[in-house]
Amino acid sequence: xxxxxxxxxxxxxxxxxxxxxxxxxxxxxxxxxxxxxxxxxxxxxxxxxxxxxxxxxxxxxxxxxxxxxxxxxxxxxxxxxxxxxxxxxxxxxxxxxxxxxxxxxxxxxxxxxxxxxxxxxxxxxxxxxxxxxxxxxxxxxxxxxxxxxxxxxxxxxxxxxxxxxxxxxxxxxxxxxxxxxxxxxxxxxxxxxxxxxxxxxxxxxxxxxxxxxxxxxxxxxxxxxxxxxxxxxxxxxxxxxxxxxxxxxxxxxxxxxxxxxxxxxxxxxxxxxxxxxxxxxxxxxxxxxxxxxxxxxxxxxxxxxxxxxxxxxxxxxxxxxxxxxxxxxxxxxxxxxxxxxxxxxxxxxxxxxxxxxxxxxxxxxxxxxxxxxxxxxxxxxxxxxxxxxxxxxxxxxxxxxxxxxxxxxxxxxxxxxxxxxxxxxxxxxxxxxxxxxxxxxxxxxxxxxxx
Length: 451
Fold this sequence. Notes:
PyrdxlP-dep_Trfase_small, single chain, aminotransferase, Serine--glyoxylate aminotransferase isoform A, globular, Aspartate Aminotransferase, domain 2, seven-stranded mixed β-sheet, Aminotrans_V_PyrdxlP_BS, Aspartate Aminotransferase, domain 1, 17 helices, pyridoxal phosphate, alpha/beta
């Protein structure tokens, strides 16, 4: 189980049930998070390997993701003292370089030793006070868990409910904002990429909706599985706080929660009365400008982040987003070839970070995931909460190319057949290959490659 999943699990789902959230049955606590890198749920029938299998584990969950060799090498360092003189310039460069993936020149970046969940908490507690009214959307497990956190922090949460498989409903947001004539809503909170359902919401359209009603609310965005993979423009979209985690598109291990805050958000911090200690922006803002930190940084992960950002900078963020779209389209072509459907129906919301695939009625998607792991050492994501047993998930974000994803499609195809799904061998993989071949860039000449 991933650290992010563990940190989100404890206490939250049962408290949600106690508050009457009918969408999440109590048994979800035990079963919802059995997705990470071959980890088995408590009552799983998934067999353990009797020996170390040949080859490598094929990791295709939507985080943690595959780590580039350059990043792995960068993290292989001896113990070092972050109070030595070299650290200040290194850390200031990390904070500056991080702005690239957020798409900002104006925002303030902060790195917390922690996870995306810690970033969530920092976004809420540094900008809001107990009793403040916020509006948000529920269309998957992770949007639900952010709502749960908001309520546990004492916020007055207006929830716009959505189908699991849809994104943020801007028309319903417009109705809520229009009715808020006294401008009491302090923040609009959106999960950009919902990994439960494979949905990417339209943040620019959310911003346009807020502007159309001249609403001064803060815009807080969970970009945990989007930032660094999908197009994200913090400044242009006028996001006030955005959050991501190291184990997603940055392709480094779990352990860093990264936040970008606008001047408006930092101004709100001065009047926010929510209790905060470890995740207090003020401590970071006091020490970071000189390259210092208020508590111990995770140096190997910072070295990994430096190497990962270098790779992304060399590729170019527009090319990174285009690569993720190309991979996702190939995966979606494979789903069509299998005769199956994605949980997300509307093309404008289909995620380029992962694909969530519905299995036929009468088939338990857990069996597909179990077979994939047991027979092919392939780690796929299971269905969570409301879609448990109905879908499986293929992650294709971060350090990923066509050949890598082809292996996942091949393994998933074999697992589907093994699980009794009527799929013709080669039907999905061939569709993906055909798409990638037809849309491939021209092969560079040897002279160009050596130039």
